[in-house]
Amino acid sequence: MHPELSFQEKKTSAFIYQTLLSFENLEVTRPTEYSVMARLIGESPGKVLAMRADIDALPIMEENDFDFVSQSPGVMHACGHDGHTAMMLGAAKILSENKDDIKGEIRFLFQHAEEQFPGGAKEMVEAGVLDGVDYIIGLHLFSTIPKGEIGVIYGPLTANDDTFELKIIGKGGHASAPDTSIDPIAIASQFVSNLQHIVSRKLDPLERLVISVTEFHAGNAVNIIPESATLSGSVRSFSQDVRGSAVQLIEQIAKGVTSAHGASYQFNYDYGYSSVVNNDLLTKKVEDAVSEIFGDKCIRYGPPMMGGEDFSAFLKKIPGCFIPVGARNETKGIVHPHHHPKFTIDEDALNDGVKILINASLKILD
């Protein structure tokens, strides 16, 4: 009911901190201003496993009518992070009550700011939450996957998530005399059209790449050719080689079309979250745990997703596995996509997530 945006999770992290303090056998700390970590050290020595839940919300006005609908105007949990937090709190409570069964250590990482680059995961890593940690796992509820299905994906799971901004600088003039100007709108339109050739003609057709222009701003009067046009967009890829090639090819097109028409340009490319790549050994452990709990029929082997996730910041340091958990239920009307004003989850999926976290962690540490 009280969602908070990225890098603003003051009350959320305080609630999590106090809740964890009410559990037994946990060492609870605040590694960064808006995050929380709890350590559960088992009775016998072994490996160290971390598990992560993100806690932030999105700047969206909620249109649901639940009893627990957002009380913060313009902010809602439209991506299931409240569910991730609930599942890991549940797992922490049960595991903390069974300390004698733990070999090694489990660290519960409640991470802020997944939704806003550069992301809270990077900040937590820099704060040392992974020091001495061998592996990490995490869950994500998906309204695109039916409740009862659990995703098991080997290798890449999410895409590299980058953005670019291009400003095309022409020469303004009167709309009645286009020959005396250098029209940045016409040039920008060619740039947008030519971008599609990167995917269809410049790369191996078996490689995955999405380039989308999502903003186009130019002019403010109907009878004036503006001085400049600014475009922004999103670039999604899996291969680091393709990621690097995309930057070069986008700027190459910008340089070509502007040069051909006597314009100039300013280009900026921001590398966002890297691809989440699941470790094969850990994924097999998770697969075995899921199979033991729910049976093989519930497992969903699927292709990777084009979404971005800053869980990748943890995976740059240690091997891990990220697990999609089905939370869609058409019978209950739970069908809206993530980041939608009516997004919600089938709360029965929370039980699935708790069971996966507990059983996977014990299997990995064993």
TrEMBL record:
GO biological process: diaminopimelate biosynthetic process
Signal sequence range: none
Cofactor annotation: Mn(2+)
Coiled coil: none
Co-factor binding comment: The Mn(2+) ion enhances activity.
One Gene Ontology term of the molecular function aspect: N-acetyldiaminopimelate deacetylase activity
Superkingdom in the source lineage: Bacteria
Pfam families reported in the protein's UniProt record: M20_dimer, Peptidase_M20
Keywords: Hydrolase, Manganese, Metal-binding
Residues annotated as domain Peptidase M20 dimerisation: 163-255
Residues that bind Mn(2+): C79, H81, E115, H140, H339
Listed name of the protein: Amidohydrolase
Annotated source species: Scopulibacillus darangshiensis
